[in-house]
């Protein structure tokens, strides 16, 4: 399958020549020039002419402002014409910047990258502009040269995916049209499209519910915040003062932050074993919790990609009359796959579910969702302001978008998702998800065979592998655990500084019960080869502090 988001080009020669009919743009070594102004319109043939002013006549002040330069708008019937030559410049600068970087990360570390960027940017607010092509060529090149590139198979630290080309192209179209998803008269078609996409994805999460729904969010942090907000409002509607959040030690940090922002009690934290919530610990916590409670389960932890025992946690929550929210920002796309969706059995027991398609969905940021079991769960978000959703407009049939988000102005992020779903279909996305899961299994096997590496014992996460150099264990045996962990941290930083690999870090329990520092490989590249994984393992093994 052609993905449009594969490996970065190697520096094997000059870029391919532009296609026939391509409008030439200045080369990188050409002097910066202002964009040419639009030609002046000729005066009518019979227009009267003013007599020439005397040479010494005083200058009269003008009653009108000076004519601004052409705006070059991206929308309208002339927008594509204005965009086309600029896009050629952007694509060329992306190509040259990626070649200049020649790896997953710019070499040299923060100071070198920052100094180079500041030199290029200076002055950040010039008195006079340099023109569209020069500005794009210079700054896009600088951004690409200094980027962490998730399209490189050795960029594997975070839940940071390489976006599909089709999704990026769709995002360009949405950006050019610039719908604002806070009122129907700013986004007529985008409103209808978002409704269709959110309902379809909500039905994937809650297939047995008659009216599931979903909101588009900026990501997992916002989705979790809104989930806790809705839980608080349900508790208040039932006569309680607040709601008690109960979560595992493996919960995403946004859960604690959301509770703080919403003025909720500090979450009750439940013990985990091997990275997953212990059901018996949850039972004990709920037995001593007074009032309404919201249990948080995680389907794909950030550090290890592990999935809590969802069916057991759901049963325990039901026993105590607690509600269940599942943070599936990482693992949610397993639902696309017929062979992997069983890992999320029990997810439809949740009253709300967090999803992120800018992780294991290959969308440009942002592409978050909050799915709810029933559309009525979203009613607490209802808000009215006359200029966006006047009551008489709503009664007349204009859709009300203000209750679809805690934000007002927001981008049409559902559009790129819609294009991707149409282009690949559920089964096409499933193949990409399955490839990443298989890649993790391959890297685990490679690590287990490697004499200089050791994998964290236990099951592999969704597409995450924890490993560490055996040299760190040897050092820990001689100088203590802190020395071993320091060795792991130093290896990671050396890889980053050299620009050779982007690897994360996580603390997790080892076989002997000790919590140690591990290197973390999060594999979200949908076209990684076994040879890429072998090279990554060797790169880690051969890096010494």
Characterize the structure shown:
- This protein is of the alpha/beta class.
- The chain has helices at residues 79-101, 110-121, 132-145, 165-177, 188-205, 220-237, 253-261, 279-287, 310-319, 386-389, 391-395, 414-449, 470-479, 481-498, 530-541, and strands at residues 155-156, 213-217, 244-248, 268-270, 272-273, 276-277, 293-298, 323-328, 352-356, 368-372, 453-455, 464-469, 502-509, 515-522.
- A hairpin with a 2-residue loop joins β5 (272-273) and β6 (276-277).
- The longest helix has 36 residues, at 414-449.
- GO terms for molecular function: aromatic-L-amino-acid decarboxylase activity; pyridoxal phosphate binding; transaminase activity.
- Residues 1-82 are annotated as: Disordered.
Can you describe this structure in just a few lines?
This protein is an alpha/beta fold. The chain folds into three domains: 79-147, no CATH class; 180-410, Type I PLP-dependent aspartate aminotransferase-like (Major domain) (Aspartate Aminotransferase, domain 2), CATH 3.40.640; 426-543, Alpha-Beta Complex (Aspartate Aminotransferase, domain 1). The protein is built from 15 helices and 14 strands.
List keywords for this structure.
alpha/beta, Aspartate Aminotransferase, domain 2, Aspartate Aminotransferase, domain 1, 3 domains, five-stranded mixed sheet, 15 helices, disordered N terminus
**Strand pairing plus helix content: what structural class?**
alpha/beta
> What is the overall shape?
globular
**Radius of gyration (Å):** 28 Å
Spatial order of the strands forming the largest sheet? 2-10-9-8-7-3-4
Distance between the termini: 40 Å
CATH topology of the largest domain, which one?
Answer: Aspartate Aminotransferase, domain 2
Number of helices: 15
Output the CATH class name of the largest domain. Answer: Alpha Beta
Family: Belongs to the group II decarboxylase family.
Modified residues (N6-(pyridoxal phosphate)lysine): 359
InterPro entries: PyrdxlP-dep_de-COase, PyrdxlP-dep_Trfase, PyrdxlP-dep_Trfase_major, PyrdxlP-dep_Trfase_small, Pyridoxal-P_BS
Cofactor: pyridoxal 5'-phosphate
């Amino acid at each position: 399958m052609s993905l449009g988001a594969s490996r970065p080009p190697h520096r094997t020669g000059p870029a391919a020549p532009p296609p026939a009919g391509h409008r030439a743009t200045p080369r990188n070594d050409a002097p910066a020039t202002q964009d040419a102004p639009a030609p002046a319109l000729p005066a009518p043939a019979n227009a009267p002419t003013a007599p020439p002013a005397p040479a010494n006549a005083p200058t009269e002040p003008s009653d009108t402002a000076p004519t601004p330069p052409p705006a070059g708008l991206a929308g309208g019937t002339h927008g594509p014409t204005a965009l086309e030559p600029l896009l050629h410049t952007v694509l060329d600068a992306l190509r040259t910047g990626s070649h200049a970087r020649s790896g997953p990360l710019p070499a040299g570390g923060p100071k070198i990258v920052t100094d180079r960027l500041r030199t290029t940017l200076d002055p950040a607010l010039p008195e006079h502009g340099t023109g569209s092509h020069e500005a794009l060529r210079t700054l896009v090149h600088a951004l690409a040269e200094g980027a962490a590139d998730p399209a490189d198979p050795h960029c594997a630290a975070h839940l940071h995916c390489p976006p599909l080309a089709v999704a990026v192209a769709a995002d360009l179209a949405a950006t050019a049209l610039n719908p604002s998803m806070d009122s129907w008269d700013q986004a007529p078609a985008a409103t209808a499209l978002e409704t269709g996409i959110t309902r379809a994805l909500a039905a994937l999460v809650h297939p047995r519910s008659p009216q599931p729904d979903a909101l588009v969010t900026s990501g997992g942090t916002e989705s979790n915040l809104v989930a806790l907000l809705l839980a608080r409002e349900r508790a208040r509607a039932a006569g309680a003062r607040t709601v008690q959040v109960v979560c595992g030690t493996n919960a995403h940090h946004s859960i604690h932050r959301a509770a703080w922002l919403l003025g909720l009690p500090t979450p009750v934290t439940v013990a985990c074993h091997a990275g997953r919530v212990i059901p018996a610990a949850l039972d004990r916590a709920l037995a001593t919790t007074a009032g309404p409670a919201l249990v948080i389960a995680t389907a794909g932890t950030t550090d290890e990609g592990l999935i809590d025992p969802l069916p057991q946690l759901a049963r325990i929550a039901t026993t105590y009359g607690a509600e269940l929210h599942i943070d599936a920002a990482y693992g949610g796309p397993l639902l696309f796959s017929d062979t992997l969706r069983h890992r999320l059995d029990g997810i439809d027991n949740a009253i709300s579910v967090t999803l992120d398609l800018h992780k294991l969905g290959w969308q440009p940021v942002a592409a978050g969702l909050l799915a709810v079991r029933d559309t009525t769960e979203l009613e607490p978000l209802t808000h009215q302001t006359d200029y966006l959703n006047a009551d008489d407009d709503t009664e007349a049939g204009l859709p009300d978008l203000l209750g679809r988000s805690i934000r007002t102005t927001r981008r049409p992020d559902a559009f790129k998702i819609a294009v991707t779903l149409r282009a690949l279909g559920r089964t096409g996305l499933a193949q990409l998800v399955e490839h990443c899961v298989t890649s993790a299994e391959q890297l685990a096997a490679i690590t287990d065979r490697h004499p200089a590496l050791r994998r964290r014992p236990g099951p592999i996460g969704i597409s995450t592998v924890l490993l560490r150099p055996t040299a760190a264990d040897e050092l820990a045996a001689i100088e203590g655990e802190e020395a071993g962990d320091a060795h792991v941290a130093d290896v990671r930083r050396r890889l980053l500084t050299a620009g050779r690999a982007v690897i994360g870090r996580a603390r997790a329990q080892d076989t002997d019960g000790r919590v140690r520092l591990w290197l973390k490989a999060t594999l979200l590249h949908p076209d990684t080869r076994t040879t890429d994984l072998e090279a990554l393992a060797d790169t880690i093994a051969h890096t010494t502090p």
